[in-house]
Amino acid sequence: MKVELLRVTEGGISLVADASKVSGVSSTRGAEEIIALNTDNDYSSVLEHIYFTFDISEISVALSRELLEHRIASHTARSTRYIEEKGFGYYIPEELEREGAAAAIYRDAMASTNAAYTKLRELGIAREQARYVLPLALHTHYVVTMNVRSLINFFMLRLCVRAAPEIRALAMHMYKICMDEYPLIFSSVWCRGFTLGVCPENEVRPKECPFKGILPKKHEIKVKFERHAKRIIEKELAT
């Protein structure tokens, strides 16, 4: 997996601060104070003025499907219709790679698929037809542009220890880049539990979660106030 920053909005802190003042934030507040206000209180629409563009390569087609679930972004992908895939590279799950016999079976399957694709092409079958034998493990290449608000959502979901390993690795690469560029914004962001101060994963948190003994579960907090909160909602609906 390779992740490279192609472009980032320059002067983003002052840009966000100035935009926030347009919406009513006091002009006497400094830029750092305004950023803290926006991130702490989730006034995040103003963060959309900052964009990152990443070059992401040597990821699997399977990962790209998860990446496309983050729809508030611009995606440009390597085309199997127009690009030859003979001798393609592919992703090997780390856990599988540690198992010698399983890894051999996996590699044999990739070699067999490559042979089938190559033979189809030699027979004159068009790429757009031959590509249907290609595996989900196939390496692909994306250019992705996301604004900071979308990136925060991406990190909250994909830095969780329950995220699929490959996309979590991608999120880690992207997060480090974002931290290098705008630590003032991203230092308060990690998984949903860390960012929100309460974990919505509840009982399914695995033992590997570093915050398991620190962060409360969402349902624990909700149960404490839900009965009284429902009465308040009922009164609101009755007015």
Summarize the structure.
The chain is α+β, with helices and mostly antiparallel strands. Helices cover about 50% and strands about 15% of the residues. The chain contains 11 helices and 4 strands.
CATH architecture name of the largest domain: 2-Layer Sandwich
Q: What is the CATH class of the largest domain?
A: Alpha Beta
Major β-sheet strand ordering: 1-2-4-3
The backbone outline, from C-alpha atoms, is globular
Q: Stretches where pLDDT falls below 50 for ≥5 residues?
A: none
Structural class: alpha+beta
Approximate strand percentage: 5-15%
Please, what is the average pLDDT? 94
Q: Count of helices? A: 11
Helix and strand element order: EHHEHEHHHEHHHHH
The CATH topology assignment of the largest domain is Gyrase A, domain 2
Report the C-alpha radius of gyration, rounded: 23 Å
Q: What is the straight-line distance between the termini?
A: 56 Å
Task: Please tally the β strands and state the result.
Answer: 4
- Give the helix level as a range of percent: 40-55%
Total tally of structural domains = 3
Largest sheet: 4 strands, antiparallel
